[in-house]
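dude i think i finally got it to work??
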Amino acid sequence: MARKKTTQASADYEVGRGKPPRSSQFKPGQSGNPGGRRKGSRNFRTIVLEVLDSEIELTEGGRTRRVPMIEALMLRQVQEGLRGHLRAIDSLIDRYERHASQEVEQADELPEEDLALLKQAMGSSRRNRGVRQGIAPGGSLDLTDGEDLDHD
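look at this
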């Protein structure tokens, strides 16, 4: 038969699942992973963003200017494409198509069907509210509350 381990725990603390013996618990101020990541170390994403945001001097038409690294890389890729490098052209067109298709489409007006459903829902909820307040369904209840739902 297996023998149970006895611990020297105080009567007010029960050892069990999620409750290790006090002697093996972390002491105040003690790290759970002392050999872990150093303070101030940066991850790959942070390093890439810092490098691409850093500025570089660029000479265009005899004039020197400072531009972000990402802009300089894009200008270089455009130059390579203009020289006839098909991979640069393909990459630029692909990027253009991906970013041009992400434009946010804003609908200025609701379609007629949606507008009719909205009016119907607003009207029925306000009529029901009017009945609860003692106004008869055929009585004078302003269904628009001063708001014009038509976008004419």
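Residues 138-152 have pLDDT under 50 and may be disordered.
im so relieved honestly
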